[in-house]
Automatic annotation (TrEMBL):
SUPFAM superfamilies for the chain: Multidrug resistance efflux transporter EmrE (SSF103481)
Record keywords: Membrane, Transmembrane, Transmembrane helix
GO cellular component: membrane
Keyword Transmembrane helix listed: yes
Principal localisation: membrane
Parts of the chain that traverse the membrane: 6-27, 138-155, 232-252, 264-281, 301-320, 332-353, 365-383
Protein name: Magnesium transporter
Membrane-protein topology: Multi-pass membrane protein
A GO term for molecular function: magnesium ion transmembrane transporter activity
Keyword Metal-binding applies: no
């Protein structure tokens, strides 16, 4: 191949990384849009001076034990309304171009977060005047199509024109693009720890690609594929993978799971399952290639099963990655997913394709495990650090945490009740222990 062929392969790899990063950020953006659109129609901030530490009621400067709608005691309440304009079928505050946030001081508690959402609140609109949720779903579907349909052909074309050792430095570009464009496109700025961890993951990924097994299994036959599924190490890999999937499912579902462990389970779930699919993809291609040797060769019964497993596991990994991006920022989701994918694929290759037997030099035998260690170190830093850099009004981190869910439900209920009292002018008396 001449120089132009290498350039073609590199360009395809760069384009694939851009498509993957754009799809990842699009999915994350769709979840953030949907989260904001589901917020209640009002934002209230209560003054700490109105909340007495030993009394279970809110007292204003009017008569004791009552709540009035007049806001003459300072600024205990700030409202941003989104409702029907006298039955005309449109929202007054939807979409909201700009809303001034209340001044947050030492004596102010926001019920929902530091600042009110600056977009529409269509979840509270009875007439459905906004289309935030519809647009969010369209964006999410577009991102999933980009990852599942556009990236694989570009990667295959790149492999046709360039060797893995040439493409290795570009394998981590997806994560680099996510870090570079996360703030401008999604509004989430990666922290310093996330940047360091992502750098370690990319370094480990490139090290594994350079010093790993470059054997393409060109001499593999249908008989060797069938025999490989009866080998003990490969059976042990699949059994251990099944146990791991069951374990992370338990960590995700259990209400007693600690925060960092749940974050680890969500982040690694998609990559681990996608890594399991690679053996079925590779073996399906090997079996299909045997058809070229003679037209009389019949289709084995397990080929459709391999194809279904490859599609099912890849789709399952994509859905889990999408669900992870609902809960955590794009940098964390992409970095941990890439790390778990590389580890899962490396373990599968070692058990199924005998990777370590194909490592000829001492440098390969030393640097390949070191690359995996560096990669896992980056994943560990991300898991221990913050998994989300969202504004506090976006309920995106640990949304499965029962304490988080109770806090959200309690805040939404309190806001709905206070909003009803002040908007409709009702003045019920609140019982206290002193009465």
């Amino acid at each position: 191949m001449d120089a132009s062929d290498w350039i073609t392969g590199v360009c395809c790899s760069v384009i694939a990384s851009l498509v993957g990063a754009a799809s990842t950020l699009t999915i994350r953006k769709s979840w953030l849009m949907e989260e904001v659109s589901e917020q209640p129609s009002s934002y209230q901030a209560l003054n700490l001076e109105d909340i007495h530490p030993h009394e279970e009621y809110i007292e204003t400067n009017f008569e004791e034990g009552s709540i009035h709608g007049d806001n003459s005691n300072g600024s205990p309440l700030v409202e941003i309304e989104c409702g029907d304009d006298e039955g005309q079928g449109r929202c007054l505050g939807c979409p909201q171009s700009h809303t001034d946030s209340p001044v947050q001081g030492d004596n102010t508690i926001p019920l929902l977060g530091e600042f009110p959402p600056s977009c529409c609140c269509c979840a509270a609109s009875i007439l459905g005047c906004c289309h935030c949720c519809t647009l969010a779903r369209i964006l999410r579907f577009t991102g999933m199509l980009g990852i599942s349909l556009l990236c694989p052909p570009l990667v295959l074309v790149a492999m046709e024109y360039a060797t893995p050792s040439i493409l290795a430095p570009f394998s981590g570009l997806n994560l680099v693009w996510v870090i570079v464009f996360s703030k401008s496109l999604v509004g989430e700025e990666p922290s310093f720890a996330q940047k360091v961890a992502s750098t370690l993951i990319v370094t480990g990924e490139v090290t594994v690609a350079i010093f790993g097994d470059h054997n393409n299994e060109g001499d593999a036959t249908r008989a060797s594929v069938e025999a490989s599924y009866r080998e003990g190490p490969f059976i042990a890999y699949f059994l251990s993978s099944a146990v791991y999937v069951a374990l992370i499912t338990l960590w995700i579902r259990s209400p007693t799971t600690i925060r960092s462990l749940r974050r680890f389970a969500w982040g690694t779930s998609g990559g681990a399952i996608s890594g399991m699919a690679q053996c079925f993809v590779k073996d399906s291609l090997i079996v299909v290639s045997t058809f070229k040797k003679g037209p009389s060769i019949s289709i084995p019964w397990y080929l459709p099963l391999f194809i279904l497993l490859a599609i099912g596991l890849s789709l399952g990994g994509l859905l889990l990655n999408t669900a992870t991006m609902k809960r955590y920022d794009a940098t964390f989701s992409q970095a941990v997913s890439v790390g778990s994918y590389v580890v899962s694929t490396s373990l599968m290759s070692a058990a199924h394709y005998h990777t370590f037997e194909h490592l000829d030099s001492i440098a390969n035998l030393v640097m390949y495990p070191i690359g995996l260690f560096i990669l896992m170190l980056g994943v560990a830093i991300l898991v221990q650090g913050s998994g989300s850099s969202n504004p506090s009004w976006a309920y995106s981190e640990d949304v499965d945490d029962p304490n988080h869910e109770l806090l959200r439900e309690g805040a939404d209920l309190a806001i709905a009740e206070v909003n009803e009292l002040f908007v409709y002018g009702e003045h019920p008396t609140i019982e206290t222990d002193d009465q």
